[in-house]
Every structure is written in structure tokens, then in C-alpha cells.
Write a structure and sequence with these properties.
By secondary structure, chain A is an all-alpha fold. Chain A is about 70% helix and about 0% strand. The chains are: A mainly alpha, B mainly alpha.
Chain lengths: ~150, ~140
């Protein structure tokens, strides 16, 4: 079922500003890129200091999101959009893709573009385009098939 | 102090994802549905993040080194290689199918809905698979 969602420019921009601030704070303090895919993979696979800062950042992420959601109800009505097998396939695609492509919406889309990285600009355009095409095919070519 | 700042940065990020509405996969997938029920909210999330980070990064880098570390850890590659292109395309496919990218995928777990745990585990498995077996 495709249902419209409410356009929320102000609150979304406010949330985006907080994400930008987070990226700046992390670069200013420890010189790291706030790229969540790299932080998750590094937290799982690195050791010592390389793992520690990532675990601390993720701890903060869960605290900040949990507190905010408790106050705002942001997570009250969220639902998975596709069946479990499709969800698993999508999860693997996101995991392999962000790892192979060295970043996701935060690392390339926010941090990379902010420092004018050509690789990040190209990656962001490509994953956006790929997302547009995927949703177009899902919703307007295959219809309710998924 | 350093550790507190890192946790604080994480908390700001998590709060930003939750407030912006990006933890709702329907909102993200609708952003990607240009020819359907398009919800442009996500563009405002990225736009505002860039408006904050671009000028602030300039001053951070101008300082020469971070406050609590010896140097900035920045990617050195400049070339557009096949892995960057293929990775971005695969990521976009998974993002479109699910309406979830890595940060919102983690935040969505807090809803308590098991499907989101399954997604996050599949994502983690994909990352580990790629790093351990597909990278050279």
C-alpha cells in the first residue's frame, strides 16, 4: 500500500541541522567523518581505539534517538514497507553497497559533499538515482507485486 | 572529555534522525517516489545538514588539527573507481526497496519492531561480507 506522508520542511530541516552539527562536532573533536555505515562496520570489525570511538558514537546515537523518540513519538507509527525476504535482501544490498562504495547518506551525502569530495558527490548522485529508479520500478512498473 | 564529546555528537545525530522523520521508511521511500506521492522532506534534511556542515568544516579544517586527535582522518582517494559506482548503485537499490539507510535503520530498531532488527542484522552481515571477502 502506497500512502502519502506529510511534507515537513521545518522539522526536517531542524533535524538535518542537528545532523550537520553532529558531523562538525565529530570532525572538530577527533577528526572523524560522521558516516554511519563506516562507523557500524568499523565498530564490528576494528579493534582498540579504532573501535572505541565508533562504539561511543553509536551509544550516543541510540541515546539521542531514543530520548527524542520518547518525547516526540517519532517511532510510534513506523512500519516495515516490504515482506521479510525483501527486507533481508534490501539490508544485504545496503550493507554490501555502502561498504563497497565507501559510504552512505551521511558519510558521502553530508560529510563528503560538505568538504567538496568529488567521489562523494558522484556517489550521492548515483545512490539517489538508483533509489529513484528502484522505487519507480517497484511502485509504477511492478505495482503491488512486492 | 573526548569521550563525552563523541557521545554527544552521536546523540545529536540520533536526535536529528528522529526529529527529521527519517526513521520512518515510508517518508524516505516517498521521497524517492518522484512520480508518485513525492514527499520532499528528505531534501530539507540533507540541505540543512549541508548548510551547517559546509561552512563549519571550513573553519574546522583551517585550525589544522582536531581538538583531541593528532590529525584529521580523511579518505585520500580522489578517483572514481568501479567499486564506488557499483557500491552506490547497490546501496540505492536497497535504500529504495526498504526506505532505510544505515542511520535510520539503527534508529528504527528502537521501535521494538522485529523486522527492523532483521534488516539491521542483514545490513551488518552485508558490510562484514563485503569487507572480509569482497575487498582486495
Amino acid at each position: 500500500m502506497v500512502e502519502p506522508t506529510t511534507f515537513t520542511p521545518y522539522i526536517s530541516a531542524f533535524g538535518g541541522a542537528l545532523i550537520g552539527l553532529s558531523a562538525v562536532l565529530l570532525m572538530w573533536s577527533v577528526g572523524r567523518i560522521a558516516g554511519i555505515s563506516g562507523i557500524v562496520a568499523g565498530a564490528a570489525l576494528e579493534h582498540g581505539e579504532e573501535r572505541n570511538w565508533r562504539l561511543l558514537f553509536l551509544l550516543g546515537l541510540f541515546i539521542g534517538a531514543g530520548a527524542t523518540a520518547a518525547l516526540s513519538g517519532a517511532l510510534d507509527d513506523i512500519q516495515p514497507l516490504v515482506s521479510t525476504p525483501v527486507l533481508v535482501a534490501a539490508g544485504v544490498l545496503v550493507g554490501v553497497g555502502t561498504s563497497m562504495g565507501s559510504g552512505c547518506t551521511s558519510g558521502h551525502g553530508v560529510c563528503g559533499i560538505s568538504r567538496f569530495s568529488w567521489r562523494s558527490i558522484v556517489a550521492t548522485c548515483l545512490f539517489m538515482l538508483s533509489g529513484f529508479v528502484t522505487v519507480f520500478v517497484m511502485r509504477h512498473v511492478l505495482g503491488e507485486g512486492l | 572529555m573526548k569521550n563525552i564529546v563523541i557521545v554527544l555528537a552521536g546523540a545529536l545525530f540520533g536526535a536529528g534522525i528522529a526529529i527529521s522523520g527519517m526513521a520512518n521508511p515510508a517518508k524516505v521511500q516517498n521521497f524517492l517516489d518522484l512520480f508518485g506521492v513525492w514527499d520532499p522532506s528528505l531534501a530539507f534534511v540533507m540541505g540543512a545538514a549541508l548548510v551547517v556542515a559546509t561552512p563549519a568544516y571550513f573553519f574546522v579544517f583551517k585550525a589544522g588539527k582536531p581538538k583531541f586527535a593528532e590529525r584529521f582522518h580523511l579518505p585520500e582517494r580522489k578517483d572514481i573507481d568501479r567499486k564506488l559506482v557499483a557500491g552506490a548503485v547497490l546501496f540505492g537499490m536497497g535504500w529504495g526497496l526498504s526506505g532505510l539507510c544505515p542511520a535510520p535503520a539503527l534508529v528504527a530498531i528502537l521501535s521494538g519492531i522485529g523486522h527492523f532488527v532483521v534488516f539491521a542484522l542483514a545490513m551488518l552481515a552485508g558490510m562484514i561480507l563485503q569487507r572480509q571477502f569482497m575487498s582486495r
